[in-house]
Amino acid sequence: MELDPTDREILKLLQKNALLTNKDISGKIYKSIATIYERVRRLTENGYILRTVAILDRTKIDRSLIAFSQVLLNDHAAGTLKQFETEIAKFPEVMECFQMTGTFDFLLRIATANMEAYHDFYRNKLATLPNITTVQSFFVLSETKSDTAYPL
């Protein structure tokens, strides 16, 4: 499925505010509500829209500390990599996990209440996983930009 300009406009609007109704979108791009409904349905069925979420203010829900942790495994067999991915996905503190090229195997974005909570996560969860050689963590001091919308 190719995206046409109308599809792109719908996606731009929904990325900025997923609470927009079909009527709201219709009024912004001058298409019928039925057209918008059908296009959003098609975009969802074709996997362009994966899910609809609310983005929370992490400071208001006690997740003020963000750490980026680089993880190096001592074994790179397919089973070891898969086992790490399966186990790391179970931890609610891990917001994102990416397998990387370069010096480290994985990059994690971890959200906790504070340094004590991070230490508890590290000691009692992350460090208990098998085949980890090194974990190097970096802590966010300030956030200049955080966007979830892709340019279209």
The CATH architecture of the largest domain can be given as 2-Layer Sandwich
For the secondary structure, the number of strands is: 4
Q: What percent strand? A: 15-25%
In CATH, the topology of the largest domain is named Alpha-Beta Plaits
Biggest β-sheet strands, sense, barrel: 4 strands, antiparallel
Count of helical segments?
5
In CATH, what is the class of the largest domain?
A: Alpha Beta
What overall form do the CA principal axes indicate?
elongated
Strand order of the largest sheet: 2-3-1-4
Protein described:
There is one protein chain. Helix 2 crosses helix 3. The chain has helices at residues 5-16, 22-29, 33-45, 78-88, 115-124, and strands at 65-73, 94-99, 106-112, 132-139. A hairpin with a 6-residue loop joins strand 2 and strand 3. The radius of gyration is 20 Å and the shape is elongated. The chain has 152 residues and is of the alpha+beta class. The two termini are 15 Å apart. A four-stranded antiparallel sheet has the order 2-3-1-4. It is built from five helices and four strands, in the order αααβαββαβ. The chain folds into two domains: 5-45, Arc Repressor Mutant, subunit A (Orthogonal Bundle); 58-139, Alpha-Beta Plaits (2-Layer Sandwich), CATH 3.30.70.920.
